[in-house]
Amino acid sequence: MKAPMVVGIEEAVASLDRYDTILDARSPSEHAEDRLPGAISAPVLDDRERAHVGTVYKQQSPFEARRIGAALVSRNIATLLETTLAGKPRDWQPLVYCWRGGNRSSALATVLARVGWRTAVLDGGYRAFRRQVVTGLAELPTRLQWHVVAGRTGSGKSLILQRLQAIGAQVLDLEAIARHRGSVLGQIPASEQPSQKNFESSLWNALRRFDPARPVFVESESKRIGRCHVPDPLLARMRASAGTRIELPPGHRATLLLREYQHFVSDRDILFEKLDRLVPLHSRARVDDWRALAEAGRWPEFVEALLTTHYDPAYDKSIGRNYPAVSREGATLVLPDDSDAALDACARELQQRVDGGA
Q1: Given the residues 25, 53, 98, 333, the one annotated as active site
Q2: 98 has catalytic annotation
């Protein structure tokens, strides 16, 4: 093959899963902010080089910038061929893109095609993909059937969603995509949240795969999950949908939360920093009472105190205001305890009720 194929965004999206590799020719910082699903970083200019070429373009001349840039791009493509792309088979088929389908992706794709690989380059680049994501997030939620899984903090909603997914149900796990559990204590250790754009791209990638003929289970999230914002069209559909309330006795909720949040037991400094954020809502004295329970190692009492005085009142108010259909008319599933067997049984019954056991 002498030249790369140029594919439009519609064709690329339809074939996204069939490319062997998706190569992002943009700089590492551009890739880190957002990227096509599954894309790997294959920069033809790194951040420093890109900035330098841009400066030369503005301060000297476009010709000098192209001359310098061509030398840098050539060296970087050679390095990619000797490292990241070394050992790719003869029938390897990549998709290459850059910011707008211009020089960076064309340079890399042209070399790959001349090597003999069946190479495609995305017309319009990342900008075309971003427009596709924005359009999809406005349209896709309206085509799907939603079933909201609600319940007070610690009732096992996220664990039940995981089990639903494992037995074949369609699940949108927003907390997994956002890499955050959704509350003031919801930060996951050693896991940085995605940028808003990357959160939206991952969300779009999940939504496009769902079968509209079957329900999609989703947790009764608020608009913000850590620093990520749930897009308004999706949130509106969730809040207008039917659902099921999960109930678990307070003592078992505390036990479940202690299993899920063990990192706070071992790192109390982080816990106390998070608790201090609740002072405007509950007073210094109350937060100090919670802190005293934690310092004394009275963890079940600490968790139950947080549940009864902070999480439960806030959740009850929020669910009544934001998910009125679930609050007024939703079915209820009561778990006897927080055991794996109880969570498994709850997921199976919920799937049977809503999805017909499909």
Answers
A1: 98
A2: yes
